[in-house]
Amino acid sequence: MSAWVGIIFLMSFAGTVGLNDEYFNSEKACWMYFDKHPSFTLVHTQNNHYQVNAKVKKYEINEVGMAFVTCKEKIHDQTVSPHDPDKQMPKHEHNNDHDHGSHKHN
């Protein structure tokens, strides 16, 4: 069974913003949570520009403001950045079967 994450970007009428996440056992359960939430009213659904298999839904939230929500499958336990110096690719192992020219090391 896979895990799904509901990622919520909140924008209040007062101008404050927030980010939250909720966890589910399926994509259907994730969307049902938001679609059936008594304070949420669906305004618009669109494709997620950055992940073609996901969608983003805009909701109005009673007496709060609005939220943009996406449900994504949790595939990895941790995101590994290619820019993280602690997680770099292994260094090239030198193969001595070829000549690098004649130079001396001090």
Tell me what you see in this structure:
The protein has 106 residues and is mainly beta. The protein has a domain at 3-75. It contains 1 helix and 5 strands, in the order E-E-H-E-E-E. Strands 2-1-5-4-3 form a 5-stranded antiparallel beta sheet, with helices on one face. Residues 89-106 have low confidence and may be disordered.
State the main characteristics:
41% strand; 8% helix; 106 residues; mainly beta; globular; five-stranded antiparallel β-sheet; 5 strands
Structural class comes to mainly beta
Mean of residue pLDDT?
82
Beta-strand segment tally? 5
Along the chain, the helix and strand elements come as EEHEEE
Strand fraction = 35-45%
Q: Could you list the spans in which at least 5 consecutive residues all have pLDDT below 50?
A: 89-106
Which overall shape is indicated by the principal axes computed on the Cα atoms? globular
* DSSP helix fraction: under 10%
Our count of helices gives: 1
Radius of gyration, in angstroms, nearest whole number: 23 Å
Distance between the termini: 59 Å
Report a brief summary of the structure.
The chain is mainly beta and 106 residues long.
How do the strands and helices of this protein lay out in sequence?
Layout: E1 3-12, E2 17-24, H1 27-35, E3 40-47, E4 55-61, E5 65-74
Antiparallel strand pairs: 1-2, 1-5, 3-4, 4-5
